[in-house]
User: Which sequence fits this backbone?
């Protein structure tokens, strides 16, 4: 008697206790077999719930599902394919999938068999390490500028540039309190200069000796960061002057010397709004800039004394 062809995942007793999520599903998207690890990975409460799932609905991005199907049509195999899952319990997770198409003698796909690994924790760790590296690179650029270039304004411009880049902000400025307790702008982002259609005769007054008020005034007065992704309706918003950019999101982070607030980094209009990570990363950068500025001024004072 010829040996019956049996898909490898049908050896249920062997696969039942494996920690890896395994499945067999029809081309239409119905799961016809899975092990207990698959129940947990999909966020289901029971095997019955899992067997009632329509697999295309698991994809947080349906375009990714189409890419998966195209790969299967072309090669009959998907290897180390990472995608974001919309779990049955409402949560989202990242998984890595390895799967193959099971075909009949005529080459027609009759099922998909594969494995899923939840890589959410690993992906978050990779992203965290990558983000940490970006912050350290930004801090290094600020100190490098302070040690190799000539003016406070150049150091401030570098700090603002890397802050805008790091947070994907469209606009930004960096200001410092003057002797009268009002704000002088040390640096303005290039995009901000182009977008703020201020008349040349008004520009100096608008960016120097400014009263401390509004949302960025709150940052200075309170000595704490302020994150507003609906700035027009923020209780401390006072609107914007004529010709100023329209704010869709705002992040203000204080600058400090010896425990005293001395100014702020103001960032605006990141697509999708700012996150707590943006705030924390910019706070680290603000510490580096304050230290670099202090170093620059100490160096300038030393040079002044030595020249007399």
Assistant:
């Amino acid at each position: 008697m010829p040996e019956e062809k049996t898909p490898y995942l049908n050896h249920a007793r062997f696969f039942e206790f494996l920690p890896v999520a395994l499945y067999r599903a029809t081309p239409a998207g119905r799961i016809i077999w899975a092990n207990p690890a698959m129940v947990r990975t999909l966020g289901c409460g029971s095997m019955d719930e899992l067997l009632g799932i329509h697999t295309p609905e698991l994809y947080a991005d349906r375009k990714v599902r189409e890419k998966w199907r195209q790969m299967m049509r072309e090669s009959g195999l998907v290897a180390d394919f990472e995608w974001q899952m919309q779990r049955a319990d409402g949560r989202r997770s990242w998984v890595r999938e390895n799967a193959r198409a099971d075909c009949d003698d005529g080459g027609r796909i009759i099922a998909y068999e594969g494995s899923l690994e939840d890589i959410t924790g690993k992906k978050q760790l990779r992203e965290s390490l990558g983000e940490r590296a970006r912050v350290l690179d930004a801090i290094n650029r600020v100190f490098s500028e302070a040690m190799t270039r000539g003016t406070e304004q150049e150091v401030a411009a570098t700090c603002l540039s890397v802050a805008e880049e790091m947070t994907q902000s469209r606009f930004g400025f960096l200001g410092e309190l003057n002797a009268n307790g009002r704000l002088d702008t040390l640096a303005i982002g290039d995009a901000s200069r182009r977008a703020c259609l201020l008349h040349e005769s008004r520009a100096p007054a608008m960016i120097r000796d400014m009263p401390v008020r509004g949302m960025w005034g709150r940052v200075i007065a309170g000595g704490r960061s302020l994150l507003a992704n609906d700035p027009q309706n923020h209780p401390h918003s006072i609107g914007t002057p004529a010709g100023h950019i329209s704010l869709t999101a705002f992040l203000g982070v204080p600058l400090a010397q010896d425990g005293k607030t001395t100014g702020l980094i103001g960032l605006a209009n990141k697509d999708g709004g700012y996150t707590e990570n943006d705030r924390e990363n910019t706070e680290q950068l603000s510490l580096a800039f304050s230290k670099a500025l202090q170093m620059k001024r100490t160096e300038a004072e030393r040079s002044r004394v030595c020249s007399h």
Q: What stands out?
A: The chain is about 40% helix and 25% strand.
